[in-house]
Fold this sequence. Notes:
Number of domains of chain A: 1
Mean pLDDT of chain B: 95
Strand content of chain A: 15-25%
Number of strands of chain B: 12
Low-confidence stretches of chain B: none
Number of strands of chain A: 8
CATH topology of chain B: TIM Barrel
Largest sheet of chain B: 8 strands, parallel, barrel
Structural class of chain A: alpha/beta
CATH architecture of chain A: 3-Layer(aba) Sandwich
Shape of chain A: globular
Low-confidence stretches of chain A: none
Oligomer: heterodimer
Strand order of the largest sheet of chain B: 1-2-3-5-8-9-10-12
Order of helices and strands of chain B: EHEHEEHEHHEEEHEHEHHEHEH
Mean pLDDT of chain A: 94
Structural class of chain B: alpha/beta
Distance between the termini of chain A: 32 Å
Number of helices of chain B: 11
CATH class of chain B: Alpha Beta
Helix content of chain A: 25-40%
Strand order of the largest sheet of chain A: 3-2-1-4-5-6-7-8
Shape of chain B: globular
CATH architecture of chain B: Alpha-Beta Barrel
Amino acid sequence: MNTAATGPRSIGILGAGRVGTAVARQSLRAGYPVKIATTKPVEEIAMLVDIITPGARAVEASEAANADLVVIAVPLHKYRSLNPRLLAGKTVIDVMNYWAPVDGLIDEFENDPRTSSEIIQAFLPEAHLVKSLNHIGYHELEEDGKKAGAVDRRALALAGDDDHAKRMVAAYLDRLGYDPVDAGPLCAGRAFQPGTEIFNGSHTADQLHAVLAAALASSAS
Amino acid sequence: MEIGAYSFGDTPLNPDGTPRPTAEAIRNLFEAIVHADKVGLDYFGVGEHHTTSMPASSPGTLIAAAAAATTQITLGSAASIIGTDDPVRVFQQFATADAISGGGRIEITAGRGSSVETFPLFGYDLADYDELYADKLQLLMTINDSTTEHVSWAGTARPALANLAVVPRPVNGPLPIWLATGGNAASSARAGSLGLPISYGIIGGAPHRFAPLAQLYRASAAQAGHPAENAKVSVAALGLVAPTKGEALDRFYPGWNNLNVEMGRLRGWPAPDKRAYLAQAEAPGAYYVGDPDDVAERIVHLHGHLGQMRHFLQTDIGGLPHEHFIESLTLLATEVKPRVERLLKAQ
């Protein structure tokens, strides 16, 4: 895959929690310009962004959404604070998880047979949503990355329904230091949600392909 | 620097691994606090926790009992989960303990809680998490800072207080209220702008990663006009001290493993990995498991990054034999603390 041609030129991150700031720092290390927005006014988060993610810029959500690639890293139960209009037509990574034992039961996700990302996609109908970066710990994201071609390079799965968006996300993951592995359509993200082998472990691309194939086979049977 | 300990309670295990009565955990914890006071530890925190393996659900009660049985140690919660409690009640319990202690030894640490058991237990909706926490912290501060016994407050988390007495008042003015956080940047900014001391719970990864958070905390405090000396940082971490590093590693491991097996069952994690344990127990890992030299050096190393004024360890997890807990408390007070002071002075 020619990642240089398809990769994003800028990253916008919605959310400045532990995950959002870790994604921001790793993106900065990879050389991307990074903008971060929360639901708070810019002046309220400017110092936080300067100190915790040096090099990134605090902006309003509308400006963060202007980046080539937008990463959603808000607490899942607050996803309705996202503005679907701002994300229409955008390539968006959903890093959020529904992880009830840790974050508590949320009826809406508990009682819906769809994956959390499919529910988010329905809320953001015009966004090109890609599920990824959700199955690596935020510490690990900044520690495990390696150059392309490195032995035992860790792989990260991605799932989505838009091929162009997936190519962009794959190029981004590669530049962050990880082998991208396409798991298939958005609903295939089920294979790397909390509680799965992929979510709990660390895998190379070959290993990840094998686990995904096994998961696909067992869901088909 | 103050050296201390904290605990969520640790239910002892029978030889076959089944739990003994939770009441024994409370009794053991009480005895450990009294012992910590005798050997000269500076601080003991009791963390609100609601599980069979960690049953210290009522820090205020335990601290009131400990206040009566100790003479010098500072006692506090580590932490009180105020989002699902009534701040009026939390304040009253700790102000009562303060009165029993004679005054000046009781603190409150307000936290969100690292797990979510308290939401169903006390009938709260998780969706209100942030609002509850912010609102109740503000109420707790209003009561604590009040110059009279009568308090007025209005918010969304509970009915308003219209000039109602909240008693007893602490003996020596407001109680120290700390804000506990596990590393969310917004929490550091919030503690700084509120002028509250901050307590970092560092339970994994390299602790010096928290340096930018402490920087943000101090910058937020300065920006809000709070004097620099009020911007205090403390560190809560896992650890155990034994005469030798080898003994410390062997003593702490079984309980660490038990706790991680239990969490793994709950959260769908794989079996815990001893290599990960051993890695975390070496510098710059998060577990202060070692002999007095090792633990003191690592506390002082972190001080170079965070400037913490207090460092306190959680030792009794997963059914740790009580005598190992007691010995660790003794070594912390009599061996680690003097080394930390010596090393800091030499800098």
